[in-house]
Amino acid sequence: MLTIGELARRAGVTTSALRYYEEVGLLPPPVRVSGQRRYPESAARVVGTILLYSDAGFTLAEQKALMAPRSGASGEWERTARRKLAELDERIARAQAAREAITHGLRCPHEDIEQCPHFRAGVTARLAGRRLPESHRQLHGRQPDEAAACAE
What we know:
With 152 residues, the protein is mostly helical.
């Protein structure tokens, strides 16, 4: 059995984080010995799972769905995982478009970036309500990959 301090040190988290995980239902309630929390050794793996899911971008609420048994008709864990994949795909697309825009800016021969037709088109697209990945696809007809050469 581990005290809350021992579990916190082993997992690399604070004791308040462990109490919060317990409060929200991610960490099973420990037994009490003389009023102190005592966790089984297996609690370290539960905390490790919480940390891994957090690293993958899942909120604590989403983690509850992922930690529920996968059997049953609900399939909530699969819906949660698929939603997160879609979110990650969108973030990756934004990051790729941003990378290409910045790379283009570094390579652009125009002394004033306002004179660059790619930059002007991007500003126009943004003012029309389109985000960077969408405006990039419209400008180049493809997903961002390599910085486009500035033709003008």
